């Protein structure tokens, strides 16, 4: 749990509950100053050449690599995630700063001769990508560093400045990453961090200064952000919640299913947007697969991630652990059965849990996102029913299908209403290059190396009239 007094945020070790550091909350007057600075610095940064931006960003990526062990250890303590996962997140951060810098440098802009339209034969159209201005990046607690990089790297590559609002629960590693920017030669004010919760986030979204908000978090908060941002018509990127299905067809390799389902539901201690939260299984193999999942998932080692061999750490705070406990309890009362786990342990730990007999009408089978290590198993009589169950949710982030017949899996994939489908692997899969994002209440727009440079810039058409020979008679 994070303890808050009037002016100071105390960040806790999530496994032991002991304080690890304090940060001053950003006061409203300081927020105005931060936003004004961001706007001032942006005008200069937009004029910095692309090769210089590339140089600074790749130097920063190298600095991140040098600090990986230190920042990963901090993230592990403040988030409760196992160290290896936090090291992986730092690795993603380094790759994204380098990757966005390289793509920005390699991108070319367009020049069109306009003789494809009568009367414009002498004209030349230049299509130039310009920055948006000041971008606000609001981060969730589960992957603060990865999402910092997914937002900040493309934004600054395209000439924007950024104000980052890390989560209240685990802001420390992000604060360190921002400090490292100036230490590695980036201009003061290019990326600034503010500390606060919903009030600070809402003030940033409502301010007249930012041109765009890039938000990752729950669907409920995303809707509030969208309502607030509508006043000033800010450009919005929303990456929101999910209740992803993993469909297991009767010819699937069950060893692979178990391995991938356990991986996908245990990363980040079960607190991942695109985890396989619902396992939709063909009725002929439900019993066999359920037993295997219960054996394997139920035997994961839970504890302080500082200890060797721990695979699942604590949930982020008391509220989160209570919520998962009550979601499990309600699902049991509705008729489901526990095959493994089912209980909250001391502190904010929750036993890896497998629930069988979940039916499509239960909230966890539809729109209730369980943010903890809990799998719900649903039975389907054929492929069509499996798709119906999977699509019976307002979310649509990712999904998975297991089958030995890739053609059959492809047919199912085309019917899933999700931004991503993985065949023969967990849907918790995010290659840097993919345009990641969801359908429906899972969000709007896409993030990733292939998409974000466009998302953080806008077209400017510059036309040179009557500059070509044939342009004499042009209007
Ligand atoms: P959250 O919505 O509680 O908070 C997210 C961020 O928004 C935090 O920084 C918070 O302080 C801030 N915030 C809260 N109220 C605000 C307001 N009114 N205006 C502006 N900002 C406000 O989410 P969380 O609990 O930190 O994260 C978990 C959720 O995020 C889950 O639903 C998960 O599925 C989702 N998520 C989605 C993705 C994705 O890529 N789609 C990735 C990670 C997490």
Could you describe the 3D structure shown?
There is one protein chain. 39% of the residues lie in helices and 20% in strands. It has 475 residues and is an alpha/beta fold. The strands form 5 sheets. Strands 13-14-15-12-11-17-18 form a 7-stranded mixed beta sheet, with helices on both faces. It has helices at residues 28-45, 50-66, 68-79, 83-106, 144-157, 172-183, 198-206, 219-230, 254-266, 286-298, 318-333, 383-391, 406-415, 452-455, and strands at 3-4, 8-12, 19-24, 110-113, 124-131, 134-138, 161-165, 191-193, 212-216, 235-239, 244-248, 276-282, 337-340, 353-356, 374-380, 395-396, 399-402, 422-423, 439-440, 443-444, 457-464. It is built from 14 helices and 21 strands. Helix 2 runs antiparallel to helix 4 (83-106), helix 3 runs antiparallel to helix 6 (172-183) and helix 4 runs parallel beside helix 5. Bound molecules: nicotinamide-adenine-dinucleotide. Nicotinamide-adenine-dinucleotide binds next to helix 7 and helix 8.
Topology:
Layout: E1 3-4, E2 8-12, E3 19-24, H1 28-45, H2 50-66, H3 68-79, H4 83-106, E4 110-113, E5 124-131, E6 134-138, H5 144-157, E7 161-165, H6 172-183, E8 191-193, H7 198-206, E9 212-216, H8 219-230, E10 235-239, E11 244-248, H9 254-266, E12 276-282, H10 286-298, H11 318-333, E13 337-340, E14 353-356, E15 374-380, H12 383-391, E16 395-396, E17 399-402, H13 406-415, E18 422-423, E19 439-440, E20 443-444, H14 452-455, E21 457-464
Helix pairs in contact: 2-4, 3-4, 3-6, 4-5, 9-10
Nicotinamide-adenine-dinucleotide binds next to helix 7 and helix 8.
